[in-house]
Amino acid sequence: MCERNLVQGSKVNFLLPAGQRFLANAALLFLVAFGTPCVRAQAPAGPLPQAASKDTPGSSQVNTPPPNVPRTKNLAGTWRLNVDDSDDPSKKLQQSRGSQNGGQGDGRRGGGMGGGWPGGGGRGGYGGRGASGGESDSDRQKMQLFLQPAQQLTVSQKDPEIDVTDDDDRKFAFYTDNRKIEKSKDPNHQGFLAKWDEFRLVAEGKDPHGNKYERSYEVLEGNQQLRETLFLKIGRNNTEISIHYLYDLVSGAPSQGPASQ
């Protein structure tokens, strides 16, 4: 076949029989039609192009904060005292006595919780019932225990009853159904009528001196802290004083969202 090829200029004419020429032309067309794309599809020599990174500044994902958890009336859980965020009751009482005395404190009553308060002389002590006749150590101890915050609270709630137990196994039972509360002879187990004031559970009682006070509990925004508040009136002028104790959630229902709104 090669001997019968004729070269005419830059062209080569194949002198083949008609049947063989048809097959040769068909093979040539097949190579042109299907062979060239395959060659073009081959990757060029060198490293492969890198895929576009998904961590580009424009497409980087931003960690969005979790949605706000609705505030709850569910006080159930275990709560531990946050000393840094809580009031010091002895300082609160000293400040109130200082305001009653025109800004001048009484050194005899500046001994803190273990010192001369409440009372301590005259009728300027807590609730107007000072120790003019001499306040007993037992009375002072009762008041100290009354104002001293618990280190931990455990709250169980099954409306209309909310039970608050401290780390000394003292229990307060609050009822919101206006039932008749019988006076308990056990000082470590007391019952109170209570009501909801928005998110606050509010109850009234009497301190060891017989003066009325208000105690309330509420879960703060975020449902991770419980605030206990004692609202008192002290001295001859019935000076109002509020003492706040903050407790951090250790475990319980508020961390999982509200049980009741």
Written overview of the protein:
- There is one protein chain.
- The chain has 261 residues and is of the alpha+beta class.
- 18% of the residues lie in helices and 29% in strands.
- It contains three helices and eleven strands, in the order ββαβααββββββββ.
- The protein has helices at 18-41, 89-100, 137-147; strands spanning 6-8, 11-13, 77-81, 152-158, 161-166, 171-175, 189-197, 200-206, 212-219, 225-234, 239-251.
- It has a nine-stranded mixed β-barrel. The chain has a two-stranded antiparallel ribbon with strand order 1-2.
- A hairpin with a 4-residue loop joins strand 10 and strand 11 (239-251).
Map the helices and strands:
Blueprint: E1 6-8, E2 11-13, H1 18-41, E3 77-81, H2 89-100, H3 137-147, E4 152-158, E5 161-166, E6 171-175, E7 189-197, E8 200-206, E9 212-219, E10 225-234, E11 239-251
Parallel strand pairs: 6-7
Antiparallel strand pairs: 1-2, 3-4, 3-11, 4-5, 5-6, 7-8, 8-9, 9-10, 10-11
* Strand order, sheet with most strands: 3-4-5-6-7-8-9-10-11
Cα Rg: 43 Å
Largest sheet: 9 strands, mixed, barrel
Mean pLDDT rating: 72
N-C termini distance:
99 Å
Low-confidence stretches: 1-12, 37-41, 55-60, 103-133, 255-261
Attribute tags:
nine-stranded mixed barrel, alpha+beta, disordered C terminus, 11 strands, disordered N terminus, 261 residues
Summarize the model shown.
The chain is of the alpha+beta class and 261 residues long. It has three helices and eleven strands; from the N terminus they run ββαβααββββββββ.
